[in-house]
């Protein structure tokens, strides 16, 4: 693992019943990269991201995942200090995963749970530092005026931006975004992608984002990793991803579907 | 045009196995009803009407409720409601940790399964039996009633609470977990907000039914209006029984309506 690598994935497999979601996947992510993870449904994109944040265990064996030079999980066991690692990895979900009945402020303040006093966190007595960090993060993603509103009263795009604010309050160094724009309209989707790109460019955060829209992957990310049937089918610059490669990944119907203008 | 070429499938047919299951189930219920006909003395059904002369006599007194001691009745009704309040309150305090520990999705099986069995056991003891036990333990009076209600209701509420927890959306909990939060943080911020309306609704519903149960507990000496009712029945003062019954019905219906109004606003 090189010095610049913040994430190292080695020979990771994951089996659900008899289905292999990940098949000996290896991947290195360097600090400050913005990587798109693409591939058809069921190719293992979400499984890979959920394994990195240890929301699920990987199969036992030689497979291991390291973050910031320390193990997240190896041989099918999650590291005992996983909570400390998780605080440095922000996770963005397709369904936002905010707590619907809590207001945006509280939802975003939950990002500080990993570093503030246990009891303050338990009773929601947010320290002044958390409070100002929350408002700064909400302002940055552009939903500060809704801080007092319940999360489930807001639109998908607003909720997703609040979820990004939660990762900011977390002071995450890596952001893993699992289909962050799949349930959003095109305008909201673009704002979310631009917010993620801003975090990558301005703050130097490492971003790994799974996407269904290949054109988004090509527009926002320098490096693209494609999964097919749990194996890595392409790993390289976005510019090197040609139509014949995409047809190989998604199947022959890809050309008909990709009407927004295939590369070259 | 392509519609015509698609072969039309036959409607689904219930298999012999599915039918025989239905026959066994319904047949079994009918057999049980026939067997229970004698022991339950259903043959005495006509007496409801043939004894109407006696009924008219009692009914006559019932129609002239005697409200001379209404202050006592209202005072004792209020005592009964207070028993229900504390019984339910203590039950909620016990049911929150027990309910969380009995939920499959947040508690490991080696704790969750024994906890479920324990709750089944607690619920299977009728509150009248619990009342008798507590009367022996703490003496006649309201506190025995409070404890009887608290234990029984804790068993019921803990089961309902755990079922509510089992039906939550996993997403927000994972959202909290992904921030590096502790397990207890996940429960307080990811689970409780999701189940809060349902839990409150269940607790209010149990308060309604506990104010009825508290009346019955009075009959065995656990204080409140039930005790007055029992005395009036023993002395054949049906006019007083009638007055007490009216006060109970009015009070319990009022509590029902109030809590239903709150519950409908919660959900």
Concise description?
The complex is a heterodimer of chains A (264) and B (267). Chain A is α/β, with parallel strands linked by helices and 264 residues long.
Written overview of the protein:
The complex is a heterodimer of chains A (264) and B (267). With 264 residues, chain A is of the alpha/beta class. Chain A has helices at residues 45-52, 82-87, 104-109, 118-123, 128-141, 156-169, 186-203, 214-220, 243-250, 254-257; strands at residues 5-16, 19-30, 34-38, 64-67, 70-74, 77-78, 89-92, 174-178, 206-210, 223-228, 231-237. Chain A has a six-stranded mixed sheet with strand order 7-8-9-3-10-11, with helices on both faces. In chain A, strands 2-1-4-5-6 form a five-stranded antiparallel sheet, with helices on one face. In chain A, α5 crosses α6 (156-169) and α6 (156-169) packs parallel to α7 (186-203). Chain A is globular and about 50 Å long. The two termini of chain A are 35 Å apart. In chain A, 47% of the residues are buried. Chain B has twelve helices and no strands. Chain B is mostly helical and 267 residues long. In chain B, α7 (127-138) crosses α8. The longest helix of chain B is centred in the C-terminal third of the chain and has 37 residues, at 183-219. Helix content of chain B is 79%, strand content 0%. Chain B has helices at 2-5, 16-37, 47-50, 52-62, 70-101, 109-124, 127-138, 142-166, 170-177, 183-219, 225-234, 238-266.
């Amino acid at each position: 693992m090189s010095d610049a690598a913040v994430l190292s994935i080695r020979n990771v497999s994951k089996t659900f019943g008899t289905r292999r979601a990940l098949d000996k996947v290896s991947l290195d992510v360097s600090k400050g990269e913005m990587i798109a993870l693409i591939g058809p449904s069921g190719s293992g994109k979400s499984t890979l991201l959920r394994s990195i944040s240890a929301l699920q265990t990987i199969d036992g064996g030689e497979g291991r995942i390291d973050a910031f030079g320390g193990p997240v999980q190896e041989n099918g066991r999650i590291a005992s200090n996983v909570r400390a690692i998780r605080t440095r990895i922000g996770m963005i979900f397709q369904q936002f995963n905010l707590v619907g009945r809590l207001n945006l402020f509280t939802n975003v303040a939950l990002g500080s749970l990993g570093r503030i006093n246990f009891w303050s966190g338990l009773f929601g007595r947010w320290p002044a530092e958390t409070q100002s960090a929350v408002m700064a993060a909400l302002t940055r993603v552009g939903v500060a005026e809704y801080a007092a509103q319940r999360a489930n009263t807001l639109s998908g795009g607003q909720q997703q931006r609040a979820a990004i604010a939660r990762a900011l309050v977390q002071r995450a160094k890596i952001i893993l975004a699992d289909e962050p724009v799949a349930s959003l309209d095109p305008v909201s989707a673009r704002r979310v992608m631009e917010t993620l790109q801003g975090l990558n460019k301005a703050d130097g955060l490492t971003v790994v984002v799974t996407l269904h829209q290949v054109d988004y992957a090509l527009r926002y990310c320098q490096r693209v990793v494609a999964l097919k049937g749990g194996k890595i089918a392409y790993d390289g610059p976005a510019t090197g991803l040609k139509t014949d490669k995409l047809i190989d990944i998604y199947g022959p119907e890809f050309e008909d579907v990709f009407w927004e203008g295939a590369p070259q | 045009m392509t519609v015509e070429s698609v072969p039309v499938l036959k409607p689904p047919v219930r298999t012999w196995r599915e039918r025989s299951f239905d026959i066994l189930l319904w047949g079994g219920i009918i057999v049980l009803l026939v067997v229970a006909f004698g022991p339950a003395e259903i043959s005495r059904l006509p007496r409801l009407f043939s004894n109407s002369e006696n009924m008219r006599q009692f009914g006559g007194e019932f129609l002239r409720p005697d409200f001379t001691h209404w202050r006592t009745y209202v005072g004792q009704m209020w005592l009964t409601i207070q028993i229900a309040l504390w019984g339910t309150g203590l039950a909620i305090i016990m049911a929150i940790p027990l309910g969380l520990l009995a939920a499959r999705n947040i508690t490991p099986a080696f704790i969750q399964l024994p906890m479920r069995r324990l709750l089944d056991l607690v619920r299977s003891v009728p509150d009248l039996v619990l009342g008798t036990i507590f009367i022996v333990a703490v003496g006649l009076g309201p506190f025995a009633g409070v404890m009887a209600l608290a234990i029984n209701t804790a068993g019921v509420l803990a089961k309902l609470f755990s079922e509510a927890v089992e039906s939550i959306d996993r997403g927000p909990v994972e959202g909290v977990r992904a921030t590096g939060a502790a397990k207890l943080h996940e429960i307080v911020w990811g689970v409780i907000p999701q189940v809060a309306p349902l839990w409150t609704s269940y607790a209010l519903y149990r308060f309604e039914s506990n104010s009825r149960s508290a009346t019955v507990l009075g009959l065995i000496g656990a204080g409140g209006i039930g005790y007055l009712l029992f005395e009036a029945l023993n002395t054949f003062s049906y006019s007083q029984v009638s007055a007490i019954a009216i006060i109970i019905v009015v009070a319990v219906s009022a509590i029902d309506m109030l809590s239903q109004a709150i519950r409908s606003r919660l959900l």
